[in-house]
Design goal:
heterodimer, A: Neuraminidase, B: Cytochrome Bc1 Complex, Chain D, domain 2, two-stranded antiparallel ribbon
């Protein structure tokens, strides 16, 4: 009888602790928030989706609904000459990035939602253009995902460059998870790699695969909205929106399959399961996954000495919980997570500027510089 | 006689074009449910409950049920706070989702007739088209 009681108690303790440990460790900490603050760089932007620095003093910022701003000294000026943008759901004007040799060629890249062919709907496209003062010239379409769809979700998108003359950009599964992400012959749910002129590198992983989209670098993604290059290793790091409880950080490797929707730690928004498979041979495990989902937007490493104790750490914006997440990584593992700038607003983007400071794009506000006090 | 058949013909034409433009309410609600799952559910959630203080509720929402035209306007052109919903202030931004007028009518019929919401009004694409920014 007594042993039965102990057993019941033990079971209770076990089930209780499994309840409270539903958050995927390490558990988020909330340090004293008076240690952090922000300075406004530019305000009055509804959804500051992308940003890129022209110099230490100037940057370009995209407003999702279809405006590109050139920002200097806190003033924003609209840049003219944008290609036509198909505004639907989560789509619009997405990321913007300056060419690695921008200082000599004035080239920029943009990802956006477009409807440029006859069929209904739209899909994500990548453009290159020359920035001449406040106007875009020589606007060139480098990539357009097909087919168009009227679905509103999962367009991606981020643009980054490695150190070997490649451009990477992401496209989400476009609301068609059972068809797009695992099929190399279809766009969507992929990270793409191009040369800087838009041509396809001859050593892309699926260049010889029959019928495959030759620009694909990795696949099995849901909706990657954060991408950055590790300052030391040069690896491409990515975060993507999962379903409920399946947001992920991945280190992107050539030709790899990241598993969506065959394996996932998440469930449907409605609470019903997608699959009970968490792993499968030939599919990559995430570097880290968030339970509960934080709705990760942009990501950046802090590589400068500007901040105390942050060098080498990763920063990810949370749209859902409205804070900047600081992740400490040791020996290939996330060992600490904490909330910085709690309740700042829906963070859309995080970048490290050429001056070494971190900059965030906050919905309904604009671009803010992160400071330690 | 000619006049009568002309009037009859006109009546028939109007009737057919009305039937052509407006699908039955149940079909509109069903189509609206698909639009809801695609464009709205991430913020307003599965049961229209929203997130207190961040995304306003649609279920039993006084703002929605008392301001149908303003709600259509919000979906059509976007809505920036502050607005008060069930005694709570929401100061966020909902961007226009790029929906067509028929899709807006469908999703309005869905949210007006779901989660214990009910409305005497059937929203038509014509009504959506009349709402100006």
């Amino acid at each position: 009888m007594k042993s039965n009681l102990y057993l019941t108690l033990a079971l209770l303790v076990v089930s209780f602790s499994s309840c409270i440990s539903q958050e995927n460790p390490p558990l988020i900490e909330t340090p004293e928030q008076t240690k952090y603050g922000t300075e406004t760089i530019v305000d009055g932007i509804e959804v500051p989706w992308g940003m890129t620095f022209l110099s230490e003093k100037e940057l370009l910022v995209t407003e999702k609904k279809g405006v590109l701003y050139r920002v200097s000294n806190g003033n924003k000026t609209e840049v003219g000459g944008l290609p036509e943008i198909y505004k639907r759901g989560q789509g619009g004007l997405l990321d913007v990035a300056v060419h690695p040799d921008f200082k000599s060629n004035n080239l920029i890249y943009m990802t956006l939602s477009s409807h440029i062919e006859g069929d209904k709907g739209g899909n994500t496209s990548l453009y290159q253009a020359k920035l001449n003062a406040n106007t875009l010239e020589d606007v060139k379409l480098l990539y357009k995902a097909t087919p168009n769809t009227t679905k509103g979700q999962h367009w991606g998108s981020r643009i980054v460059f490695d150190n070997d003359g490649h451009l990477f950009f992401s496209i989400g599964d476009r609301g068609n998870r059972d068809v797009n992400p695992q099929d190399l012959k279809r766009d969507g749910g992929k990270i793409y790699r191009l040369n800087l002129d838009g041509s396809i590198p001859s050593d892309n992983p699926f260049i010889n695969a029959d019928g495959a989209k030759k620009a694909v670098f990795s696949y099995g993604h849901r909706n990657p909205q954060g991408m950055t290059v590790h300052p030391k290793t040069g690896e491409i790091w990515e975060n993507e929106h999962g379903p409920k409880g399946g947001d992920e950080i991945n280190i992107i490797q050539k030709g790899k399959n990241y598993g969506w929707p065959v394996i996932t730690y998440g469930i449907n928004y409605s609470g019903t399961p997608i699959t009970d498979e968490r792993s499968r041979p030939g599919m990559e495990q995430p570097f880290y996954y968030w339970v509960p989902s934080i709705a990760p937007s942009g990501m950046a490493f802090s590589s400068s000495k500007i901040y105390k104790k942050w060098k080498g750490d990763l920063f990810v914006g949370s749209l859902k919980f409205k804070y900047l997440e600081h992740l400490v990584i040791k020996k290939g593992k996330v060992v600490k997570r904490e909330k910085i700038l709690n309740e700042i607003g829906r963070i859309r983007n995080v970048k490290e500027g050429p001056d070494g400071y971190l900059y965030i794009g906050v919905e309904g506000k604009g671009i803010l510089k992160v400071i330690q006090k | 006689m000619k006049l009568i058949s002309l009037i009859f013909g006109l009546f028939l034409f109007l009737k057919i074009s009305w039937l052509h433009q407006n699908k039955p309410l149940q079909e509109s609600i069903a189509d609206g449910g698909e639009i809801y799952q695609d464009f709205c559910v991430q913020c307003h959630l599965e049961s229209g409950e929203g997130v207190s203080g961040v995304f306003p509720p649609l279920a039993n929402s006084d703002y929605l049920l008392n301001n149908i035209d303003l709600s259509i306007k919000g979906i059509k052109y976007g809505l920036s706070g502050p607005i008060e919903v069930n005694g709570e202030t929401y100061d966020g931004v909902m961007q226009n989702q790029g929906l067509e007028e028929e899709e807006i009518a469908d999703v309005m019929n869905y949210i007006l007739n779901n989660w214990n919401n009910s409305s005497e009004q059937i929203i038509t694409p014509q009504r959506v088209s009349q709402i100006q920014e």
